[in-house]
Amino acid sequence: MKSILVTGGAGFIGSQFVRQTIAAQLAKVIVLDSLTYAGNLGNLEEVADSALLHFYRGDIADGGLVAGLLLKHQCDAVIHFAAETHVDRSIRRPGKFVQTNVVGTCSLLDAALHHYQSMDEVERRLFRFLHVSTDEVYGQLGESGQFSETSCYAPSSPYAASKASSDHFVRAYFKTYGFPSLITNCSNNYGPFQNVEKLIPSTISKAIRGEALPVYGTGKNVRDWLHVEDHCRALLMVLESGRVGETYSIGGDSELANIDVVRQICAHLDKTIGVPDKSFSDLIRYVDDRPGHDFRYAINHSKITSELGWRPKIEFHSGIARTVDWYVQNNGLATQSGSSP
Ligand code: NAD
């Protein structure tokens, strides 16, 4: 059985990956998470009693800690989710994004490289480092076109710039040291356990409380939404069968303007918990646009589809209905305010 170091495993996507991996008994999972405001141990409650889960609170930039964990658990894979991830926060305070996403990633790479170099030949052949990144590194699209593995890097926000930088370091470690790394660039995820500052959970929690639903600018900015379960299924496939040194684009075939996402959420709430003659969409308010707000993202995922047979399975209409129901039932998870895709 594999032994995987999962950084950021108490966050939104990382915890889904941990729950999915343990539920399928695929690997021993060593979670390293510093539990920032975005990390929540409750996200791992479902698997807390599993003998396959080992949790450590700590920073990816702590080279000694990472080296110790890799050695102690004889890790043969690292999947790197840990990051500062909220674009609005990166606009207000970019320094933290440089520290975690760039410096932290470099430190993690160093520790993992030394671990890799200490392995015997058979172990080295099996070792993998998977860096989980975003389509935001490519900047914005106009009305047409899609990002793919060959798109040029042109990040707009400090968050995107920090992720772009980390991608470059991961690729450089492959080219310079032959370190067996892979990169995935994925579109916007949705699903349960996401921090409430992000667009979908924020809209649902505010709607339930009867608060205004802020939508940036004209609401026409487009994102390609992917259910987090589909994303984690893709990550497991890349870890298992992806070619080292390669990048894989992952997307949901589900382009939607932000305003349409908010309207779908409102329509589902109207149907499930609404009252006659009122609609949750009456709460929608357009607010000043985010500075540097990318207009559109869309992903061409034909490489991972043709090489590994992955494609998204959860259609947005049913996925968002399930997601809204989950947040309604878990209202207590909503603790912060804000909204951004
Ligand atoms: P998240 O903000 O929900 O979780 C991040 C996790 O990392 C938290 O648990 C946090 O405590 C932990 N963390 C932060 N700094 C740390 C540090 N220095 N050391 C250890 N742990 C630390 O993020 P998410 O939405 O789950 O995203 C996970 C990864 O996926 C990120 O790298 C992000 O760039 C990438 N990604 C996210 C999306 C998306 O739509 N959410 C899309 C594509 C790619």
Average pLDDT taken over every residue: 95
What topology, given as strand order, has the largest sheet? 3-2-1-4-5-6-11
Q: Helix count?
A: 11
Low-confidence stretches: 334-341
What does the main sheet amount to? 7 strands, parallel
* Class of secondary structure makeup: alpha/beta
For the termini, the CA-CA separation is: 37 Å
Helix content: 40-55%
Would you kindly provide a written description of the structure presented here, covering whatever features stand out?
With 341 residues, the protein is an alpha/beta fold. Helix content is 41%, strand content 17%. It has helices at residues 12-23, 63-72, 87-92, 94-117, 121-126, 158-177, 199-208, 228-241, 258-273, 302-308, 316-329, and strands at residues 2-7, 27-33, 53-57, 77-80, 128-134, 181-186, 189-190, 213-216, 222-224, 226-227, 247-250, 255-257, 284-287. A 7-stranded parallel β-sheet has the order 3-2-1-4-5-6-11, sandwiched between helices. Strands 7-10 form a two-stranded parallel sheet. It has a two-stranded parallel ribbon with strand order 8-13. α1 (12-23) links the parallel β1 (2-7) and β2 (27-33). The chain is globular, with a radius of gyration of 20 Å. It starts with a strand and ends in a 12-residue tail after the last helix. Residues 7-8, 10-14, 32-36, 38-39, 59-61, 81-83, 85, 100, 104, 132-134, 163, 186, 188-189, 195 line the site of nicotinamide-adenine-dinucleotide.
